[in-house]
Design goal:
Shape: globular
CATH architecture of the largest domain: 2-Layer Sandwich
CATH topology of the largest domain: D-amino Acid Aminotransferase, Chain A, domain 1
Number of strands: 13
Number of helices: 11
Radius of gyration: 20 Å
CATH superfamily of the largest domain: ATP-grasp fold, B domain
Largest sheet: 6 strands, antiparallel
Distance between the termini: 26 Å
Order of helices and strands: EHEHEHHHEEEHEEEEHHEHEEHH
Number of domains: 3
Length: about 350
């Protein structure tokens, strides 16, 4: 295996320390993913230079010109505090003729915009919850033909930012209040989509043209009270005490027939291709009790933290964590960007 010069791009303030002396598994540090990836790159024998970035592209240009990395490992999820601007950073890397890991700019654009991606999926007759969008800065007027309950969330933010049990609403007044909450607190358009009651499934996809899906993963709510909706709120995803209290865990989806698994994995590959994704991604779905599968959203460049869903499902497919990171590097080097054609 060739030793590579890897420029690790992380958010300013998330450059991890050299070791985990003060690590608390009940309160993981915000730079845990960055630490895991950089440690894996070092274990693989690669030379790593880590660069913290916030709102200035100059240091990226300087590092590319002076250090001449073989590839940039893209871990920036925002630029200038704006999540949809990560696509601009990747576009800049392409303008600099710099290979990088993860999704291309167009795939990031389409998958980040939940409303746009749902319109594209609907055009291709892929089942996705009915929805409406309430633009930031405009008065919220619920449409007459809306069907309750609906789930209200940001149309662009990820990681369940702004999602709680209050996100599920059952009448016009509650819808208006929650959409205004998203406007005021998340500072984005509000997306109101039909709430699909069912199982929460995730499927990891990796590849550029030839795609591989990882085993179907599921979020389980074993001790959740019946009157609380089984949705991936911010507390469900990130609060370890809340997870233990309600028996929330993720793992291999059980009781699916081989046909169901094959159909779900085929669907996820189709979504990945339709949204022009590359590198690696995760498709989020809901499986209704009647067997109908709905695509909720597609996530380009999902969390690569060791022990999280994507890495765990990759391990179930036979990839060690280091194998996964190396595969992502290889896909970045092989991506056929426009400047290479």
């Amino acid at each position: 295996m060739k030793r590579l010069r890897v420029l690790s791009l992380v958010r300013e303030g998330l450059i991890p320390p050299d070791d985990l002396v003060d690590y608390d598994e009940n309160n993981p540090p915000v730079w845990k993913m960055e630490y895991d990836v950089i440690a894996a790159l070092a274990n693989l024998g690669h030379e790593v230079q880590t660069l913290g970035v916030f709102n200035d592209l100059g240091p990226i240009r300087q590092s590319i010109l002076e250090w001449k990395p073989d590839i940039a490992f893209m871990m920036l999820e925002e630029f200038h505090g704006v999540t949809v601007y990560d696509q601009a950073v990747v576009s800049y890397l392409e303008l600099m003729c710099q290979p990088y890991t993860g999704c291309n700019p167009r795939g990031l654009l389409l998958s980040h915009d939940k409303a746009l991606s749902k319109k594209i999926l609907a055009y291709h007759r892929i089942a996705t919850p009915r929805f409406t969008v309430f633009p930031l800065g405009q008065k919220v007027k619920p449409p007459k033909r809306i069907r309750y309950p609906v789930l209200v969330k940001s149309s662009t933010e990820d990681a369940s930012f702004g999602i709680s049990q209050n996100s599920i609403v059952t009448n016009d007044r509650a819808l208006i209040e929650r959409a205004e909450f998203v406007h005021e607190n998340v500072k984005s358009d509000a997306l109101a989509e039909e709430y699909i009651d069912g199982r929460e499934l995730y499927v990891g996809v990796i590849g550029n043209k030839r795609l591989q899906t990882f085993p179907v993963w599921e979020m389980r709510f074993t001790n959740m009270p019946e009157d609380i909706a089984r949705i991936a709120t911010a507390r469900v995803k990130w609060n370890t005490k809340y997870q233990r209290k309600h028996g929330i865990e993720t793992g291999l989806a059980k009781d699916l027939t081989p046909k169901q698994v094959a159909n779900i994995q085929r669907l996820c590959k189709r979504v990945y291709r339709i949204l022009n994704m590359s590198g690696y991604g995760r498709i989020d779905l809901r499986l209704r009790p009647d067997g109908q599968v709905f695509v909720i959203e597609a996530n380009a460049n999902p969390n690569l933290e060791y022990g999280e869903d994507f890495a765990e499902s990759a391990e179930a497919a036979g990839y060690s964590y280091e194998d996964l990171i190396q595969r992502i590097l290889n896909l970045g080097l092989r991506y056929d960007a426009a400047w290479q054609q």
